[in-house]
Design a protein that fits this description.
The structure holds 2 protein chains of 2 kinds. Chain A is an alpha+beta fold. Chain A has 22 helices and 29 strands. Chain A is globular and about 105 Å long. Chain B is mainly β. Chain B has a single domain, classed as CheA-289, Domain 4 (OB fold (Dihydrolipoamide Acetyltransferase, E2P), Beta Barrel), CATH 2.40.50.180. In chain B, 33% of the residues are buried. The model of chain B has no long low-confidence stretch (mean pLDDT 85). The chains are: A alpha+beta, B mainly beta.
Chain lengths: 768, 143
């Protein structure tokens, strides 16, 4: 056979078979729970039969022999000649393990001649087929058999024990290589060395994840593919237009604008489309879990039911890969530490079988995954005690922790409360790895637990990693991208009279942000890129970032723009630099590094102490009722304590020294970023009060965009920025006010900025 | 041990070096690199190679020579390694030579250990010695 063709067939067979075996496992488990109908058995049979046929065609005799034995047994089951019994279920599950191991070897080495002794399994399958099924629980009359079998016994003496101490449940890992060569293989011609046969990854000596990844395929909806092709067609047309335009003698600006508009549209749609092809239902990961749950629960002598909700929730496939291990670990933890033994559960008045619920859903551009169990919950006293034993915290610090914070201790490295170390979990590399892995992909982990009622872990992860919105900042001559997920706000402080806004707490720079001290991190100092003898900063551009629920201000030279950036990984040479998450190529072809906010915070030692500094105040806001949450800017005027403006209407907040105001007729103007910005005194428009004359205090200004003009609203004091759901009630008759609402538990008037600006003589339509 | 093979030769400081021509993907005239703050000294920067971001390693620093002067010419050799593409910054690129196995000799013991790992041996050419650079070692975590 043509070698390329053969390789193609092998690829197809691998893809199909791995999918088939996942279905097979699920069906077998359904069979075990007695939830199977006649079609289930047919499905199981079909998977094995197809695999046997394909393997036979392609000359993989090892696989063929194993599947043949399994097929015989399944045929008997299907015909009703044998009844489903625990030994049969176990043998069938071991069959799928063995087949996976063989297929993995095939994927890596190009031959199914895996160092794997399948003879005992084949013998077991044949024996189960040959002897009439012993009725397990029903206890019907057992026909005479050559070899009595205890139905409850999972493993027969011929097979290795079902769970190996360290090999997880990979019963047929290539570990038994040292054993005698397979008896049944004696008749086959000795296989050529791996490299001689066409294989997908001829260089890989052993089955490895990398070799398998090379064969990974994705199924894409044909309609989506057609749409992508259409878009590519559009893209080609646009390119042709662009080339025509570029070769033309005169370029009309309108034509360029039109074309760039079009290109923008096509690329955006193409981007969304391609992204969709990378989206996979999370069920692809979950499909492995029923089997894992069954195996671990058995091993620990527990009963566990697994329920999944939202398996169709889609995620980018890189993220799917990244969460596979953490999720498996969490599930193991839930079974091992969460769910109690049946007797304990009954004593506590619960059903003997524990329940684990996995739920996935989209929310606000993120995917939430919740894993909850109805087990014993986390014993906080044990957690505190353990933290002291392991010297993770001092007793005094511990006493200051709230229960919620104490719960977070389980995420510390080296923490495990397991009474005894099992091979399932409890080696002390646990939740901290889960947390770091999730945070590595830009997600967050939250743990909740109620004693006696259970534990719930909530994971939030972004939809995709490949393209992220980012803020571009400049330091010196270099540009850096900061992912917007960790961005809280931007603050620009222009100093008045040479007084810098930066203060020091024992040498550590801080900034007063609405009355709270915000630790400052100077990016150029962190990256040691500040040229010697550079003049000290006068104005501060502060990017307020959040890392691990702690906020800090990153001082940069300039804030340039927000952009969607394409994330490119850095080579392994740069893995030692945790403050960079990757790199991206900017519009001008130059490279900008992407800052890893978490890594940067650690590097700058912002995250070093775990003490009780105020965490971002989210808990109070969380308690607020449902409803659309909006970000609000709260400020005050003399005589009006609580005024609010939706934050999206304000483009910046500035503090402008009074002596910088210039006058043009009655208008007050300031020079702002090289342009003229008119000022509007909000107090005059809201209450008609005479202006407070000649105050030397710096003005608090909300910079608004009105049409294409930039206007500054002068207010009394900026008080806060927060997010809350509210219901606006029209009522206040005052001009310039939209109405009032209860926010933060107090009545607050909402300012109608566009109306005020119109009243002040700025007509958006005219200006535009 | 070394069958006859073709080596792409190049110069770094006063060394005459060669690597297996099959591991060289392309050769570029030096261009501006994106600097990486805090990066190890041997890493020169990042290169935008048609949309791929490639780490550039300065072979002068890697082999323990002083940095080249700012106006000195240099070339990029893009090599393929197990960890993907890496750009080697060299002073100049020479011809491709056929090397015979019988001219090969491992480096003498007097060569410092740090360099012995990078240089697999020398080919005795009629007029000079050609150092064979171990590409994987030279690009392996150049820290």
């Amino acid at each position: 056979m043509n070698a390329d063709l053969q390789q193609q067939f092998v690829q197809d067979m691998l893809t199909e078979s791995f999918e088939g075996l996942d279905r097979y496992d699920r069906a077998i488990l359904a069979l075990e729970r007695n939830e199977a109908d006649a079609e289930t058995l047919n499905n199981i049979f079909r998977v094995v039969h197809t695999l046997k046929g394909t393997a036979g065609c392609l000359g993989f005799q090892h696989i063929q022999r194993v599947t043949h034995a399994g097929e015989n047994l399944l045929d008997l089951l299907r015909a009703g000649e044998r009844r489903v019994a625990p030994p049969i279920i176990s043998a069938l599950l071991r069959l799928s393990d063995a087949l996976r191991a063989l297929l993995q070897h095939l994927a890596a080495a190009g031959t199914d001649d895996a160092p794997l002794d399948t003879a005992p399994l084949i013998a077991e399958l044949n024996r189960l087929g040959a002897e009439p099924a012993p009725e397990s629980a029903a206890g019907s009359a057992s026909l005479p058999s050559t070899e009595p079998v205890a139905p409850v016994e999972i493993a027969s003496p011929a097979a290795p024990p079902p769970v190996d101490a360290d090999a997880g449940w990979g019963l047929f890992d290539p570990a038994p290589a040292a054993e005698a060569p397979p008896v049944a293989a004696a008749g086959t011609p000795s296989a050529p060395p791996p490299a001689a046969k066409p294989g997908p990854a001829p260089s890989a000596p052993a089955p490895s994840a990398a070799a398998l990844a090379a064969t990974a395929t994705v199924r894409v909806d044909v309609a989506l593919l057609d749409r992508l092709m259409n878009l590519v067609g559009e893209l080609v047309l646009s390119r042709n237009q662009l080339m025509q335009l570029a070769s033309g003698r005169q370029v009309r600006p309108e034509a360029v604008a039109e074309l760039s508009q079009r290109l923008n549209l096509v690329t955006t749609e193409l981007q969304e489309g391609v992204m969709k092809t990378r989206m996979q239902p999370i069920g692809n990961v979950w499909s492995k879990f029923p089997r894992i749950v069954r195996d671990i629960a058995r091993e620990l002598g527990k009963e566990v039911e697994l329920e999944t909700v939202g398996a169709t929730t889609e995620l980018d496939r890189t993220i799917i890969e990244a969460i596979r291990d953490p999720l498996t670990h969490v599930i193991r933890n839930s079974i091992d530490h969460g769910v109690e033994l049946p007797a304990v559960r009954v004593a506590a008045g619960k059903r003997p079988a524990g329940r684990i619920v996995m739920r996935a859903y989209h929310e606000g551009g993120q995917v939430n995954i919740e894993i909850g169990d109805d087990g014993a919950g986390i014993n906080l006293a044990r957690v505190r005690q353990k933290a002291v034993e392991r010297n993770l915290l001092g007793p005094a610090e511990l006493a200051a922790l709230s229960d919620r914070e104490a719960l977070q201790l389980v995420f510390l490295p080296g923490f495990s409360t397991a009474e005894k170390i099992t091979n399932v979990s409890g080696r002390g590399v646990g939740m901290d790895v889960v947390k770091t892995n999730i945070e590595k992909i830009g997600g967050s982990v939250d743990l909740q637990s109620a004693p006696g009622q259970g534990t719930a872990l909530k994971i939030k992860i972004p939809l995709t990693l490949a393209i992220v919105p980012a803020l571009i900042v400049r330091v010196g001559t270099e540009r850096f991208a900061i992912p917007q997920v960790s961005l809280l706000e931007l603050v620009r402080h222009e100093s008045s009279g040479g007084r810098s806004a930066c203060e020091y707490v024992y040498g550590a720079p801080v900034f007063r942000l609405r009355g709270q001290l915000l630790p400052l991190v100077f990016l150029d100092e962190q990256l040691r890129s500040r040229p010697a003898g550079a003049p000290p900063r006068v104005d501060l551009n502060i990017v307020v970032l959040q890392a691990d629920q702690r906020s800090f201000g990153l001082v940069v030279d300039d804030v340039l723009d927000t952009e969607e950036i394409v994330v490119k990984p850095l080579g392994k040479h740069l893995k030692s630099l945790p403050m960079f998450a990757g790199a991206t190529i900017m519009g001008d072809g130059k490279i900008a590094l992407i800052l890893d906010v978490f890594g940067l915070a650690q590097h700058a030692r912002v995250l070093v102490d775990n003490s009780d500094r105020p965490r971002a105040a989210t808990a109070a806001a969380d308690a607020a009722a449902a409803g659309p949450r909006r970000q609000l800017l709260l400020f005050s005027l003399p005589g009006r304590e609580r005024l609010a403006l939706p934050l999206e209407q304000a483009s910046r907040l500035e503090e402008i020294p009074a002596d910088r105001i210039e006058h043009s007729g009655a208008r007050e103007l300031v020079q702002y970023r090289g342009r003229i910005m008119p000022l509007v005194r909000l107090d005059r428009h809201l209450s008609g009060e005479p202006p407070v004359p000649g105050s030397a205090e710096p003005l608090q200004v909300i910079v608004c965009q009105h049409g294409d003009r930039t206007v500054g609203l002068v207010v009394g004091r900026i008080r806060d920025i927060f997010e809350e759901a509210y219901e606006l009630q029209p009522g206040s008759a005052a001009p310039g006010l939209l109405g009032s609402a209860i926010v933060q538990g107090r009545i607050t008037d909402f300012v109608d900025a566009p109306a005020i600006l119109r009243a002040a003589g700025f007509d958006a339509a005219l200006a535009a | 041990m070394h069958a006859s093979r073709q080596l792409c030769t190049f110069h770094v400081a006063d060394l005459y070096l060669g690597i297996d021509v099959l591991s060289v993907q392309e050769i570029l005239r030096a261009r501006e690199l994106a600097r990486i703050p805090l990066a190890p000294d041997t890493i020169e920067g990042l290169l935008n190679l048609r949309g791929q971001i490639v780490t550039a390693i300065d072979l002068r620093r890697r082999l323990g020579f002083p940095r080249r002067s700012a106006d000195a010419e240099s070339m990029f050799m893009i090599v393929r390694t197990v960890d993907g593409q890496v750009a080697l910054v060299v002073d100049a690129v020479g011809d491709v030579l056929d090397s015979a196995a019988d001219t090969f000799e491992p480096p003498p013991d007097t060569v410092p250990d740090a360099v012995r790992r990078l240089i697999g041996g020398v080919h005795k050419l009629p007029d000079r010695l050609l150092h064979v650079l171990d590409c994987e070692q030279a690009t392996a975590l150049a820290a």
